[in-house]
Design brief:
Largest sheet: 5 strands, mixed
Number of helices: 27
Distance between the termini: 49 Å
Strand order of the largest sheet: 2-1-3-5-4
Structural class: mainly alpha
Oligomer: single chain
Number of strands: 5
């Protein structure tokens, strides 16, 4: 093998053996390049469209703008973002490292905050796509290259356009993880070039999100084992493609350098932290016998739902799988999940047997890599801690989509290699077919599609956030500002956008809550003296009145004047209805009332009464959204309209207030 060429036994076409490429081989090469370009186009189109319409990172996405700008500043990040696993572990945990911040730092510096984040993530995805194409081509020429691009295009289409530039780790790592799986496969084929790339991509995955903490090392371990076995086989057989020792030494040495560079920052934090380092915290949590995990039963249901049961890993699956209740997803039965996984394993076994019979090691090792990935996925799912939101939290399992895509890819590789590729017409027809698939899927992915929950699903907050940011010049001489209060509400889309805007204006800020300090860097810790004012954020009705001792410095309304008038009208109508008739509940509503879930409704007289406690507490909105009311169609439409407008008002009416600091106020950070 020269430079990691295909280790299979497929015979090259006759024209290439003479050193003169045939017209068909030239055409297949050009079609492969066209498939790569087509696979990249949706990423570019989505990013350009987002920036043209004024996209800015909101919610957790804003942290990537802040910390990427810090890379070349005075607050160099040493950790990744805060992990929601902290809640179940009862200790502040961060994702292991800041490598994603480091990668985004240059585009953020060159293009500015929002543009740099979007372009940086898009570049990571584009480079991952090109990497998949290159290493698939190294395994089997233009045909496997085109097959890989068809799978990439299908995964990108499944994700939808708006996830192709989003920095939120559950989404931004999907295409890089598929690249990692291709690199592991390439390592098992004896491709030494894949080793340093695998080291770098593995570091990015491991540092950026804890869901890869067991998955990546296990798969990388298989890659190393497969590499050793392949190299031993080549040396024992005296094969001409056996690598020379200097090449192997060089590949391992470069990989070691890559690992050292990637892990310097987390190691600095580990050995300079005032308390237990983050890596120590993560290790202790992993060994905690009292930590509640998903378990094998639920883990089996989770893995089967994406890898073995329709709609598998395609777009409808991203749109509803694991969204219990809100989008109608119901977990499969355990029996169905086991049978589906058994069928999938049977298909892989059949592909392995056929490829082995044909001595096609590239296909054999692709199938074996997929077969290894499935039990690793099951073990990862079973041992994952129960999230605070429950076992079926969609973002916790996003890694399953690229893993299932790779399993599908391995099966495709075995099938297409099964054909007689010595006939140029067969190879050309297949390359044409897969290129067409790439073009069609990429075209389908060009329109706006925001399918998955995450910060990008809060794009409704961009307008109000921009309005707030435009007014922050009033704070120019008030910094440093204590900003804990911005994070008093869980999953607020505005807090990090405000911090990013302050950072752009060189207005410094500090935090007192320990988990927030870990997010923003220890140099931003409030010590009781380094801030004179605190910044407060309120939404909905709270934005209309200043908290005690504060003055309003920024105010934004995303709701149109027409909708505000409509809200006033429909609120008056439903209030009049409740005063006159009260509320009749469905059986589910009555059950919720008996459980004590509706305290304000419990105080309402059966025949009607004062609706204001229901309206002011927003309990009426919850009652409507949970479909607890029995109403005729006309009034049902009015109540639905009220709930929708009230929610719009509450989330898009936002204000910032500033007040002098008295005693230190601490708030729980729920990032």
């Amino acid at each position: 093998m020269t430079g990691g060429a295909d280790v299979g036994t497929v015979t090259p076409d006759a024209a290439t053996t003479t050193g003169t490429p045939s017209s068909s081989s030239l055409l297949t090469g050009r079609l492969f390049l066209a498939s790569v370009v087509a696979a990249v186009v949706p990423v570019v189109v989505a990013t350009v469209r987002a920036l043209n319409r004024g996209w800015i990172p909101v919610g957790d996405d804003g942290l990537f703008q802040i910390r990427s700008l810090d890379v070349f500043g005075h607050h160099v990040p040493l950790l990744g973002t805060w992990s929601s696993g902290s809640v179940s572990a009862h200790i502040d945990l961060n994702h292991p490292g800041p490598l994603m911040f480091d990668l985004l730092a240059v585009p953020v510096q060159l293009l500015g905050g929002a543009a740099g984040v979007a372009v940086g993530v898009a570049l990571i995805n584009v480079l991952a796509i090109i990497g998949i194409a290159v290493f698939a081509h190294r395994r089997g020429g233009p045909l496997l290259g085109a097959v890989s691009m068809a799978v990439v295009a299908a995964l990108a289409w499944a994700m939808g356009s708006e996830l192709l530039f989003e920095p939120w780790p559950p989404h931004s790592l999907l295409i890089p993880f598929l690249f990692f799986l291709v690199l592991v496969w390439s390592m098992t084929c004896g491709d030494l070039v894949a080793i340093p790339f695998a080291a770098g991509v593995a570091s990015l995955l491991l540092q950026t999100h804890l869901s890869y903490a067991a998955l990546v090392p296990a798969l990388l371990g298989w890659g190393v084992i497969g590499l050793v076995l392949t190299l031993r086989r080549q040396l024992r057989s005296g094969a001409d493609d056996a690598p020379e020792r200097p090449r192997l030494t060089r590949a391992v040495g470069v990989s070691a350098v890559v690992l050292v560079i990637c892990w310097i920052q987390p190691l600095v934090e580990q050995f300079t932290s005032s308390g237990p380092g983050n890596l120590t915290r993560l290790a202790r949590t992993a060994r905690d016998a009292h930590l509640q995990t998903i378990g094998w039963r639920t883990g089996t249901l989770i893995v089967a739902s994406v890898s073995a049961l329709p709609p598998w890993w395609f777009r409808p699956s991203v749109d509803h799988t694991f969204f219990v209740g809100s989008r109608g997803w119901t977990p499969p039965s355990l029996g169905l999940a086991v049978v589906a996984l058994a069928v999938l394993v049977g298909v892989l076994a059949g592909c392995w047997w056929d490829a082995r019979r044909r001595s096609d090691r590239a296909a054999v090792l692709g199938v074996v890599t997929a077969a290894v990935a499935l039990p690793v996925a099951l073990a990862t799912a079973a041992q994952s801690p129960v999230n605070v939101f429950g076992p079926y939290t969609p973002h916790q399992w996003r890694w399953l989509w690229p893993l299932a895509a790779f399993v599908f890819f391995a099966i495709l590789v075995a099938v297409v290699r099964r054909l007689d590729l010595t006939r140029r017409t067969a190879s050309l027809a297949l390359v044409v077919g897969f290129t067409v698939v790439v073009v069609v899927l990429s075209a389908l992915n060009l329109p706006f599609a925001n399918l998955a929950d995450g910060p990008n699903s809060q794009e409704w907050a961009i307008g109000p956030a921009q309005q707030l940011n435009d007014q922050l010049g009033r704070l120019a001489h008030r910094g440093p500002l204590l900003v804990d209060d911005l994070f008093r509400s869980f999953a607020s889309p505005y807090n990090t956008t405000v911090l990013a805007a302050l950072q752009d204006r060189d207005i410094t800020f500090v935090a007192h809550d320990e988990s927030l300090v870990r997010q923003l860097g220890p140099a931003r810790r409030y010590n009781g003296r380094n801030a004179r004012f605190e910044l407060l954020l309120r939404t909905g009705d709270g934005a209309l009145r200043a908290p005690a001792g504060s003055s309003r410095v920024a105010f934004a309304e995303g709701m149109s004047a027409r909708d505000r008038r409509d809200l006033g009208r429909v609120t008056a109508e439903v209030s009049s209805y409740i005063r006159q008739h009260g509320l009749r509940l469905t059986l589910a509503g009555l059950a919720a009332l008996r459980r004590g879930d509706l305290p304000n409704l419990a105080r309402l007289a059966p025949g009607g009464g004062d609706p204001m406690p229901l309206i002011q507490s927003r309990e009426l909105v919850a009652i409507v959204n949970l479909h607890y009311l029995m109403l005729d169609p006309s009034w049902a439409a009015r109540f639905d309209r009220y709930a929708a407008l009230q929610q719009e008002f509450d989330r898009e009416t936002v204000a910032l207030f500033v007040r002098p600091i008295t005693p230190v106020r601490t708030t729980a950070f729920g990032g």
